[in-house]
Amino acid sequence: MHAQLASLPLDLAQAGLTVGAAAALSGIGLVVCYRATGVLNLAQGAIAMITAYAVRQTVVVWHWPKALAVAVCLLVFAPAIGWTLDAVVFRPLQRRSAGPVATLVACLGVFVLLVGAAFLLWGPTPLADAPSLLPSTPWAVLAVVGVLAVGVAVVGRWTPFGTQVRAVVDNRRLAELAGVDADRVSSVGWAFGAFTAGLTGAVLAPGLRLDPYGLPLLVMETMAVAVIAQLRSLTVAVGSALALGVLQSELTQFHPGGWQQSLLQAVGANLFALALLVAVLVLPLDFTGRGRGDGTDPERRAYHPVLTGRPIASGGAAGSGRNSAVRLGCAVLLLLPFAFRADDLRSALQVPALALVLLSITVVTGYGGQVSLGQAGYAGLGALFTGLLAGGQVAGLPAFPPVVALLCAVVLAAPLGLLVGWPAIRRRGLALALTTFAVGTAINRLVFQQPAATTGVVLDRTGMLGQDRFFYGVELALLAAALLLVRALRRGRLGRALGAMRDHEAGAAAAGVDVPRLKLLAFVLGAALAALGGGLMGLGGQAFDPNAFDPVLGLIWFAAVVVFGADSAVGAVLAAATLVGLDAGTVAGVSTAVVGALALLLGRLPPGGLAGLTRLPGREARARDAAHRAAAEQGAEPVRLTPLGRRLAARVPLPAQAATPPAPTPAAPPMVARREGERLTAHNLTKRFQGVTAVDGVTLAVPPGRITALTGPNGAGKSTLFDCLSGAQRADSGQVLLGGKDLTRLPEHARARLGLARTFQQIAVFPGLTVADNLRVGAEQSAGRTARESAADADRLLDLLGLSDLRDQAAAELPTGTLRLVELGRALAAQPAVLLLDEPGAGLDRRETALLVELLRSLADGGLALLLVEHDRELVDELASGVHVMRTGRTEFHARLEHRGGAGHQGGHPDGAGHPGREAPHGA
Ligand SMILES: Nc1ncnc2c1ncn2[C@@H]1O[C@H](COP(=O)(O)OP(=O)(O)OP(=O)(O)O)[C@@H](O)[C@H]1O
């Protein structure tokens, strides 16, 4: 007995090592695949599951010898899946330079398709007879882990192939130019990743009951070790996997009793899920390289066409006739169940409920651009809270009527949206997806799967609600209310701000949108909608079923929303009807497989998924476009710039007619003059990045009524200085003043609202919004302006910039020159006192540059203070009344160019002394 006890920890450690080794295999595969392809394979779990099924099929059903089964399943079948995915799905995406969200949706598509395939082929019943391929001791698996880890390290460090992988990871284009076969690198990465996934599945399956959901989720939880390794270090991945495996096993020997016992059990059983949660919340998760705060961070300007259809013009006509027909069809579809037989009506009860959950994804992801894979968790909380309140299971509270309990549950669940909202303030793209998934999974594992939390939860429908027909009516009423709310949200000021945040976070902040608050709001609203839907689901089925809110279902729902049109509320309703309809009318798995297949086809659909099809331009619009194109081809004036040309060309000496004397400058735009121009001053600003002092004690002034230029070589620190002035980055020391106000501690949007507007080196417009809405976002952020005033200001600016004809066009469809004007319009719409322009002339042709020059002059004459980063000497000479030259973080030289002046304002040296003429170099 004593000897038995003494060997218990060792036995447990051995058992833990097997799980740890399986997690290590998964970790190695994830890290290697990510290093070679830049894609975090979220389908790893599904590949593991399908390979485990394949092993069982060959050994148990077809009676193949194990060695042959292993060779075929692990060395041929699994790698072939990876190879095919690369060739058919991911490489085409890479060629199209698809963004991180498109890649993520494709991964989820693969995941969902494989889960659906497993349902169709093997059914939902868990199978307990998966054969074990290796001895029950962990040593064989550990040996495999060791061989793979060492092998990968050796290949990575000492072989030409390893060098090629590093080259492709660093810069795919450059590597290809240097003769590296980047396609081969990514194919090998995918094949290897899929092989390790298959191996993981084969190792884990014998200890589990094999079903289409369980194993994928388990393997997804092992992503914890890849995240802990920051998707870089194999040693950290393997070490943490083994440590977690052993710890998980050792925890089972403690029996403290009481609630501590339950807690310990819950923690022990879900250690990998918890580790994933802690890792995503605590670690920096910088998967995007340098992670600059400004517009050059690809994740901060990530426009995701897979999420965005053609924009809806605010206040405009309610869309095409085709759109109205779809809406009407949708309404009829939702009313049909009233005529159904009792059984069918019972199934249909799920449609409005699921539609509400999917609508929550539409709001958070489709409107706000925040990838949220954890909405199933909030739906489950809605059901659980409703049950607890309706069943009188909350101490001190009476049993509430079901509808009251439901509404209270929504109110309780909404603030829990902050659980993902807070981390979302700093996270984007893949990091955010992982965070939301981890939170959703943790809610499922630590709450829904705990008997203490869910036993005895009743969701009876009492009174009239007990009648399915009446209950369905209530569901429809709630859905209608939610749709109206979401529609108002989409078309109002908040909707435009959300759209701006979705399309270009840095641009939105620069336009004055309070991005962190908006993210919190989106997640809170999303949690409330999901909880409402989840509560209705529970009431519909009159039970709390934790499996109805499985995190894997959450992934399927996310994919379904994106497929049907992430930014379409009607799309969410149709997705719900399709999922429920297919599940009720066909065998399990069809709906999942259909969603997965469509998700993989997304790249071939118009932007905005299936809903995008209804928003394609009608025949008339197509004819108009064709006429415009034909006119442009015949050498007529480019149609898109014609309004601007018509308005300003008469007054502007175009380069082609340089001999003509300059025309008088146009009057300053009236809406800009409303705010008094103010002096922007920087004192001793310093900003350091690890090892680099990008801005080094810079002092300068930007006086009103003048154009001040900032030049200097690449890497001198100009953009960083801009970021420190605008608030996109916080300076380490120094001060920024606007007039008498100290802005130093204010966030970017607050500076923008006080009158500091900026544009970006890489144009920051909101491609999914119309041109008019781009400007309105800028106009409506400052307090004190009514919606009507903002709209009128935006209209006047559109007119001034010659953009009126394009007002309802999506910014995504416009050429660079026009986009620069849209961006400038967005900045001016905020009625700024100071305007910071980062290379406004970049990408403009001569005609557009001439128009820009004229516009900027008129703005300065109107009293605006302008600071211009510009490399173009001619443009600087022509425009600026003062020039600062930056080199290695310092302003080395300040010159005052006498030939240009503003409206009588005194520019000059930052200390305000106003030195005449060109000055000698100053500063270090
Ligand atoms: N987030 C960051 N992390 C680390 N280094 C950074 C970061 N942002 C900028 N730097 C470094 O700071 C220095 C200044 O960069 P910055 O982009 O401000 O220069 P710039 O004058 O705007 O150059 P360019 O004209 O090429 O845009 C460079 O050495 C750059 O590599």
TrEMBL record:
Biological process according to GO: D-alanine transmembrane transport; L-alanine transport; L-isoleucine import across plasma membrane; L-valine import across plasma membrane
For bias type Gly residues, the affected ranges are 903-915
Listed under GO cellular component are: plasma membrane
For molecular function, the Gene Ontology terms on record are:
ATP binding; ATP hydrolysis activity; L-isoleucine transmembrane transporter activity; L-phenylalanine transmembrane transporter activity; L-valine transmembrane transporter activity
Instruction: Extract the PROSITE patterns matched here.
Output: ABC_TRANSPORTER_2
For this UniProt record, the keywords arranged alphabetically read as follows: ATP-binding, Cell membrane, Membrane, Nucleotide-binding, Transmembrane, Transmembrane helix, Transport
Topological relation to the membrane, as annotated:
Multi-pass membrane protein
Q: Where is this region: Disordered?
A: 900-924
Q: Which residue ranges does UniProt annotate as crossing the membrane?
A: 12-32, 39-55, 67-89, 101-122, 137-156, 218-243, 263-283, 348-369, 376-397, 403-422, 429-448, 470-489, 520-544, 556-580, 587-605
Q: Cellular location of this protein? A: Cell membrane
Could you tell me which Gene3D superfamilies the record lists for this protein? P-loop containing nucleotide triphosphate hydrolases
Q: Which SUPFAM superfamilies match?
A: P-loop containing nucleoside triphosphate hydrolases
PANTHER family from the entry?
AMINO ACID ABC TRANSPORTER ATP-BINDING PROTEIN (PTHR45772:SF7), CONSERVED COMPONENT OF ABC TRANSPORTER FOR NATURAL AMINO ACIDS-RELATED (PTHR45772)
| Originating organism | Streptacidiphilus fuscans
In this chain the ABC transporter domain maps to 680-913
Q: What is this protein called?
A: ATP-binding cassette domain-containing protein
